Automatic annotation (TrEMBL):
Enzyme class: transferase
Catalytic residues as annotated in Swiss-Prot or TrEMBL: 408
GO MF annotation terms: metal ion binding; transketolase activity
Pfam families reported for this sequence: Transket_pyr, Transketolase_C_1, Transketolase_N
UniProt cross-references to InterPro entries, sorted A to Z: THDP-binding (IPR029061), Transketo_C/PFOR_II (IPR009014), Transketolase-like_C_2 (IPR055152), Transketolase-like_Pyr-bd (IPR005475), Transketolase_bac-like (IPR005478), Transketolase_BS (IPR020826), Transketolase_CS (IPR049557), Transketolase_fam (IPR033247)
EC number: 2.2.1.1
Species in which this protein is naturally found: [Clostridium] ultunense Esp
Catalytic activity, reaction form: D-sedoheptulose 7-phosphate + D-glyceraldehyde 3-phosphate = aldehydo-D-ribose 5-phosphate + D-xylulose 5-phosphate
Protein's UniProt name: Transketolase
Amino acid sequence: MNIDELTINTLRVLSAEAVETAKSGHPGLPLGAAPAAYTLWAKIMRHNPKNPNWVNRDRFILSAGHGSMLLYSLLHLFGYGLDKEELKNFRQLDSKTPGHPEYGHTIGVEATTGPLGQGFANGVGMAMAEAHLAAYFNRPRHNIIDHYTYVLSGDGCLMEGISYEAASLAGHLGLGKLIVLYDSNSITIEGGTDLAFTEDVPKRFQALGWETYRVDDGNDIEKIEETIVKAKENTSKPSLIEIKTEIGYGSPKQGKSSAHGEPLGEENLKELKNFLGWKEKEEFTVPEEVKEHMKKLIEKGIEAEEDCKRKWKSYKEEYPDLAKELAKWMDLEIPKDYLESEEFWSFEKDISTREASGLLINRLAEKIPNLMGGSADLAPSNKTTMKERKVFSSDDYTGSNIHFGVREHAMGAILNGMALHGGLRVYGGTFLVFSDYMKPAMRLAALMNLPIIYVLTHDSIGVGEDGPTHQPIEHLAMLRSMPNMTTIRPADARETSAAWYRALTKEGPTALILTRQGLPLLKGTGKEALKGGYILKEDGKVDIILMGTGSEVQLIYEASNKLKEKGIGTKVVSMPSWEIFEEQTEEYKEKVLPKEITNRLAVEAASSLGWHKYVGSNGKVLGLKDFGASAPGNELFERFGFTVDRIVEEALELLEDR
């Protein structure tokens, strides 16, 4: 047995032992795909375990995240600091080896994966980021951004629609440095893939503009290496390499669906070791020969980075200004002074918050050169185009306006990949109602704490004539329920400035919820919105608190004036972001919403779910319980009771009940 075979078998045994110890996990993929993964990591991929975040490293994404033990075994062998105890604690509380790979939790994990297809689309985003940075910063004889993105994908990933969307865009863009290794074992949880998946995958990818290759024997590492090298030479198209493997290779469960998601069992594990000729008696043991072999491979990785450092030094000497700019991009530097400037907060007329966001995007584009984003074919409506920037295309990767096409599913995950790559401030736009399509990717962005900005317009029944299919009702509640997602629904243009300010200066993803219809600039709005909720207007002794978000704030503002005429004192509270409001001190929150004032009315043209926390048991919520209708927006506000008169009526009833 040569050293390559022994190392591959080490990966297999470590993975199977960890799953067996945990009595939980997925041994099938690691046993079948270990040769391909080893070949990539040992013979092709440029990476340095001693500096896992090296900017110009090749990226590797395990899209088939259920096979996480393969990745953990690789990280263990290659010296990424994942020790034997962590392998033993696979899937246990607080271990560095959770059931699916988690970015930011385990060193060397490039993306949180598990929901199938998401990692595939992340890879497209990473390749787009590399292409843009390379086009912007590279110069003749100075290719300082020059790396590949590799994805290990399974049959399940390629059944998911998100992969199709992302692959379509990747082919259109000609992302030649994206290479997908397709672990084609023809098995899913329910049985053979022929139960539901009989298409010719390579032909599908060829139709999408990909170059495709096939390796008939997943254990033939020479052929795998030769094919990856060939794929690297084709820089005009992304590549799919179908590698035919046997799930659960070497075990009695080989080729069976039972190998996918359950431990082998003690006896089957013994038979696997016998089949592989495994001589180590103690579990989780790495043979000495493998340890020595890995030292050489690690040294190769260190030297690869050293070579890049030499190139970087030469680049800095010849292009010092570009070198400084690249450093700023990688640090995601933000022009804080500009965000504090009068210009950033100034607007000349009443406009919709989507229009205000569009103005701000273009102001920011002049100050943030690494701002990059676009829309799912809705840029004219979302106002996401940077007017002085070019389009990112296969002809010109220096462009920073992205046409994602009608692909919200993929857009969300591609944005995650771009953010994970580093160096870019990214945003994506669509209608709020279609955040349903992006939900899985948005959830993963929140889990990974990625600073992605979602421009979600047409935020209520104010959408109007498009009808209930396009009128978001429950979507605000959905976004607010998501941990680590900051949701902001500004009441006017100045609050929109606050929303962008927050999105650019805090960690984690932010959803900007913006109107189609025009809104007046309200007296008192501005930087106080950075507190999430604030007193916009207060009239003497307060009898009732009126609170709301977005377009409904103007209504409660006007209603307060009518109530004042009736001798009723009101406090008008704008609450653009519940999450930000909850970050404030208890003293501040008490000042805005004093406990002794129990007469409270919240108004929002959406589901009332969640508002009762703020109105209390004595308060009311004027919200929506239906899906809207098709009519002009102003008529719908009348139909569903979002009027000044209705708010006054509700307030009076609330006070009478006391």
